[in-house]
Structures are given as C-alpha cells and as structure tokens.
Write a structure and sequence with these properties.
It is a single chain. The protein has three domains: 230 residues, no CATH class; 201 residues, no CATH class; 42 residues, no CATH class. It contains ten helices and 18 strands. Strands 1, 2, 8 and 9 form a four-stranded antiparallel beta sheet that branches. A hairpin with a 7-residue loop joins strand 10 and strand 11. It is elongated, with a radius of gyration of 40 Å.
C-alpha cells in the first residue's frame, strides 16, 4: 500500500501546476518572438543604410576624367564608354492576354487569364491561344541618339591614373603640394592633380543652352562650386535613384511583367545632374533593340517616355572635415561588423523561436497526459525535464547574445558619436547630410534600441527565471515534505498495526497457557 501510492504520485501522466506550466511556455515563446522581430528589423535596416556608405566610398575611389570625347565609331584602348547602359533582359513567360485571334470555344480547354504568366506555356495553354515568350538575355546599350534619332554616338572617357582619387589625394589644407596643379579657387571645392591640366569638372549638351559651338557636347575643366566629374549613369524618368543599384522608371509607368530587373519610381539623387535628355524610341532604335517589342508582346517602346544621361561629381567633404575622411571610409568596416553581429543575433533568435515552438508542443503533449518515449519519467517528471532543457537553452542563448551586444557596445556608440559630429559640423551638402542622418537614426533608434531592449529583457528574464526557480523549488519542497509526512504516517500506522497484532497475538496466547494440564492452582 505504501509504495504503490508514492510511485503513482511520481509517475502520474498529467503533471501538476498545469496553468503555471502553460503560462510559462507562453512567456518564453512571446519573449523570443519579440526578440526575433526586433533582430530582423535591425538587420534589414543596417543592410539598407550601408548602401549610402558604399555609394560615397565608391564615388571617392574613382579617378577623374582627363578627357571626354564623342564619336560615331568605337572608343580606343583605356577609354570607357560613358553612356553604357545594360538593358536587363526578360524571363521566359506565357502570354495569355486576350486578343483578336482568341477563339471563344477554346475556353473549354483552358480557363484563360488575361495576363502574362511567369512560366512556360503548357499544351492546354497553347491550345487555348496562349503564346510562348522566349527568354531574352541582357543587352549592352552603348550608343546615344542625336539629331532626333538620325545619328548615334558613343561618348568615350579617359581617366587619370595614379593616386589622384579623392579618397587618396583630397587636399586637407587650402593649397596643393609643390608638384600639383590647383584646380578651382573655392576652399571647399578645389582639386589637386599631378596632370598638366585640370580634369573635367562639368559636361553640357549644347542643345540645352545657347551656344555657337557645333559640337554636341561641351566639357569644362573648372567650376568654383564643383569637384571633378567622376560618374555617369543613364536613367529613365526624371533622375537617378538614390540607391545606386536600383533602376528608375517614369512616374506612373508600370514594369513589363517579365522584366528581369524591374524599375522603381524611387527617390531621386539630386547629386546626379542631367546632361542630355532623349526619348525612349530613339534610344532603343540607336542600339538596334526595337526587335524586343516584337519578341516580347506587350513590351512598349514609346517616344512618350524620356531617358537621360546624368553625371555626378565627387561628393564633397568640406575642407574643415577632411580630417575625418579616413575614419568615414573605415565606417564601412564598422557597419559590416555591426551587420554581422545583428545577423548572429537574428539567427539565434530564429533558432530559439523554432525550438521553443517545438518545446511548447511537447509540453502540451505532457499536459494532456501523453508519455514521451524519448524522455524518462512521466507527467511531472517529464515536464520538469522539458522545463530544464528550455531553461538551459534560454540562459545559454541569452547570455551569448548579451556578451555579443556588450562587446560591440563601444564600437556602436563610437559610430553614433562620429556621424553626429559630421552632421553638427555640416561636413557635406544637404542631401549627403540627410543620408548621414538616416544612418544615425538606424544606429540610434534601431540597433541601439534593440540592444538596449534586449539587455533589459535579459535582466527581466533572469529575474523571472529566479522567481520561477524559487517557486519550483518551494513546490518541490512542499511535495517532498508531504511525501515524507505521508511516509511517516504510513510508518506510524504500520508500527501501530504491528503493535496491535502483537497485542492480539499475546491475548490469544494467554488462555492457552491457562488450560495447561500440568498447571496447578
């Protein structure tokens, strides 16, 4: 009787404290989902703003142009094609849009949708009148239309060589070195070169302003409010996207459904200035690409849409801030380290959420009285072991994350202070300072906030874990105490029963002694 009752309490399939166990599972899951969401947001935002740093560093690393010319022929060795544009190509598809050739009875064969499908047509689609669209690879557009499309040109540029890039040779004082030529008079916009003449500072199309020149384009080797011209880009619509890798599209125009790299009605970068404007039909015609519209039904090439050749000069740092230029370029590496940190935190958070969902399911199974064969014990024992696994995993991952955050805290705070200093000292133009502000906002309101919230939740979690541990220890103490009292009770009852048995036995033996024939009174 004694052993059977105790064992049943230990091995009951339904654990005790069911409401508490459910509440704790929900707490763990919500905590980890919160951390996962914050880590994903932080990671995506740090990836997003890094483009601005890469953009500026790339701009500074380029050499200026010492000559720019246009030709109806080819560019010569060492020259680059300034007006180079890569048309992205289209994916394979199936054109099931309605047209005059559509035969009504074919609806029986295939329920036709009035759209381009991103897949190869099957036999039913073809029988219903759909047409295959063959994949087209990207094309190089290397000619610009002039004279209303009657002529096409290439613009060829030759860059300086050596260490003349703004990243390596930007002047830190208001004078150039002894063997260098000073180009410009404005202290914030002059440039030093080792060449015999200044590089190209500006390029204009003669049709855009009054000029007696018969040349299509004109270049200028000095401008007191600009640094040398180093980047060119062809874009659709009214400018180049702020994110340099995005393709722009005319506002209100939709992308062709099968285009490989769609355009965006994006925020434009005013640092790219318009040099030459031309229409889409002439542009495609100059590059012998009108066949695209024939091979890809629905791809519109129209003279209603405008394209442009845009140029960007070196992005300036004021002379007083040039001392920060090297540190700014090193910020790319700092942000890459922060990105790696956020990636690790995000991966750990995703793994934890996945594991805790699994553990929640397992705990629910034990709560409903099911036995898990891969965990010894049943009921309360089984649930306690699952709790211990969760507790250990939670503490290990949170401690690891906290260590990562604390180690990188100084680096993060250093970047925040640095970009704040650049903004406070007006180190660049308004548009570039706006990008610095976006970087600062992400570092402060996203990364820093996530890290701060994580540390707070970490200590709150530790406090809750301690309370839970104390509660479980107290419950276990009460349970053991009750079992010991029950054992003592059974022991007392057993002892009492034994004594009663002995007494009864003694009383039964006493009359027998009185009937002894050898007994004499």
């Amino acid at each position: 009787m004694k052993d059977y009752t105790i064992d049943r309490q230990e091995t009951s399939e339904v654990p005790d404290n069911v409401p508490f166990r459910i509440a704790f599972q929900i707490y763990l899951l919500l905590l980890n989902i919160t951390l996962m969401v914050l880590s994903i947001i932080s990671y995506c935002q740090i990836i997003d703003v890094q483009d601005y740093l890469y953009n500026i560093n790339h701009n500074w690393s380029l050499q200026p142009f010492k000559s720019i010319r246009y030709t109806e022929g080819d560019c010569v060795q060492n020259e680059e094609i300034i007006n180079h544009y890569i048309w992205p190509g289209i994916e394979q598809g199936c054109d099931c849009r309605y047209n005059e050739q559509y035969i009504e009875p074919r609806r029986i064969l295939y329920t036709r949708k009035d759209k381009l499908l991103e897949q190869e047509c099957n036999s039913s689609m073809r029988a219903a009148g759909c047409q295959d669209i063959v994949e087209m690879s990207s094309r190089d557009f290397i000619r610009l239309p002039v004279d209303f499309g009657n002529k096409s040109l290439r613009i060829c540029g030759l860059r300086e060589v050596g260490n003349n890039s703004f990243a390596l040779n930007s002047p830190k004082v208001n004078e150039c070195k002894e063997n260098e030529l000073k180009c410009g008079t404005n202290s914030d916009y002059f440039y030093c070169t080792q060449e015999k003449e200044c590089p190209i500072f500006q390029m204009k199309n003669n049709s855009n302003f009054d000029s007696e020149s018969q040349d299509y384009f004109q270049t200028f080797r000095q401008n007191d409010n600009l640094l040398p011209l180093v980047e060119f880009k062809i874009a659709q619509g009214n400018g180049v996207c702020r994110k340099i890798n995005e393709r722009s599209i005319t506002s209100g125009r939709s992308n062709y459904e099968l285009i490989s790299d769609p355009g965006y009605d994006c925020e434009r970068d005013p640092r790219f200035q318009l040099i030459y404007l031309f229409d889409e039909f002439n542009f495609f015609q100059a590059n012998k690409a009108l066949d695209i519209a024939k091979k890809a039904p629905g791809y519109h090439i129209s003279s209603l849409y405008q394209w442009g050749l845009y140029g960007r000069n070196y992005i300036n740092f004021t002379l007083s801030c040039r001392k920060y230029q090297k540190e700014f370029m090193d910020s790319v590496e700092y942000l890459e380290n922060i990105e790696s940190q956020q990636l690790i935190l995000m991966i750990i958070s995703i793994i934890c959420v996945t594991v805790f969902i699994l553990m929640l399911i397992l705990n629910c199974l034990t709560i409903f009285g099911l036995d898990l064969p891969f965990i010894s014990g049943k009921g309360t024992q089984e649930s306690n072991k699952l709790f211990f696994i969760q507790f250990t995993l939670k503490e290990l991952t949170q401690i690891a994350n906290a260590i990562i955050i604390i180690i990188n805290f100084d680096s993060l705070q250093g970047r925040i202070n640095f970009f704040k200093k650049l903004i406070d000292q007006n180190c660049s133009d308004k548009f570039t300072l706006d990008e610095f502000q976006m970087i600062l906002d992400v570092l402060k309101t996203s990364i820093y906030t996530f890290n701060f919230v994580y540390i707070i939740l970490f200590f709150i979690g530790v406090f809750i874990d301690i309370l839970v541990g104390i509660f479980l220890a107290y419950q276990n103490y009460k349970k053991r105490k009750g079992q010991n009292q029950q054992q003592d009770k059974y022991k007392d009852i057993s002892t009492q029963n034994n004594n009663e048995i002995k007494q009864n036995k003694k009383h039964k033996e006493q009359p027998l002694n009185n009937e002894d024939p050898f007994h004499s009174s």
